[in-house]
Amino acid sequence: MTSSHRTSRFVELYEILQRHFQPILPDPTRSVFELLIFGCCLEDAPYERAEDSFARLQQDFFDWNEVRVSTVRELSEVFCELPEPAEAASRVKRVLQSIFEATYSFDLEGLRKQSLTQAEESLRKIDGTTPFTIAYVLQAALGGHVIPLDRSTLQVLQLLQLADPEEIKQGVVAGLQRAVPKAKGLEFASLLHQLGAAYKVNPFAPSIRQILLEIDPNCASRLPQRRTFGEVLVAAAALQAQEDKRGRGKRGRRSGKTATRTSAKGAADAPAESKTAKKRGRPKRSTQTPPQESTSSKAS
Fold first, then answer.
1. Contact between 32 and 109 (Cβ < 8 Å)
2. What is the pLDDT of residue 233?
3. N- to C-terminal Cα distance for the chain?
4. pLDDT band for position 297 (cuts 50, 70, 90)
5. How many degrees, rounded to 5, is the angle at CA 276 between CA 272 and CA 281?
6. Three state DSSP letters for 5-40
């Protein structure tokens, strides 16, 4: 695909997204730190669910330090509405821990004074950040012209043949930023993210499939297909057969170990029994002292 053709397809993608979604812009009252934590919630998730999860973090915990010392399991319960609660919980916990260890606070406003290149480097040093969360902060907080792409959005772009496997691996799609003016970057990014998140939640939803076909009518063969009832039964039978085979293998190993222990015990007991038998077959030695002749007998 030539660069000009790809650019035209991105422009067409933008126009179609505008017909199906409403732009959702970042909250201007949030700090750089808060936007980073929100980005951790937003990755691979719809905006509404991310907002709810972010609000619960602030409501259910006394402060960010309490969130930091909480377990991933506890945070996963807060993120139960997200498509991948454990991953979001891990991102948040690691980011909080990394920032606290570096600054003993939860303040990233200093990034506003840095250049975008410096700010990006600083964000990369924070454990738990991802290409998506870094790009989200650069765009939403620092005014950079970048398009945040998470795995769900990249999967959709690959499905539409707007990104090749190498770009998916790197998380960067060539020509995407050039196709969208900087003034429209926030709007386009939010629309594209909504499509990716909706596909993540339910790739079989008729409304999502309709949008994908509108963008690329030739993608029908690449869309995921539901398995038929017969395929489900076959898969279930194969899984059960594997479980049965694994169970028989475990029982066989246990039986083998038991037999080995039994034979080893028998071998260890055999010499003892042999010694006992030999002892039983020997005549016992007399322990009595033979009677001595008396002095009077010798004299006579």
1. yes
2. 67
3. 138
4. very low
5. 150
6. HHHHHHHHHHHHHHHHCCCCCCCCCCCHHHHHHHHH
Q: Which fold has domain 3-222?
A: Endonuclease III; domain 1 (1.10.340)
CB 199 within 8 A of CB 156: yes
**CA-to-CA distance for 155 and 162, rounded, in angstroms?**
10
Q: What is the pLDDT of residues 50-68, one digit of tens each?
A: 999 999 999 999 999 999 9
Query: Can you give the pTM of this predicted structure?
Result: 0.77
Look at phi and psi of residue 143 and say left if phi exceeds 0, alpha if psi is from -120 to 50, else beta: left
Q: What digits encode the pLDDT tens for the residues 227-247?
A: 655 555 666 777 787 777 777
Query: Does the pLDDT value for residue 79 go beyond 90?
Result: yes
In sequence order, the 6+-apart residues with CB closer than 8 A to the CB of 117 are: none
Q: Where are the domains of the chain?
A: 3-222
Angle made by CA atoms 10, 16, 20, in degrees to the nearest 5: 135
| 3-class SS shares of the chain: helix, strand, coil, % to 5 | 70, 0, 30
Inter-residue contact 48 to 218 (CB < 8 Å): no
Lowest-confidence segment of 56-65, 97-106, 209-218, 241-250 by average pLDDT: 241-250
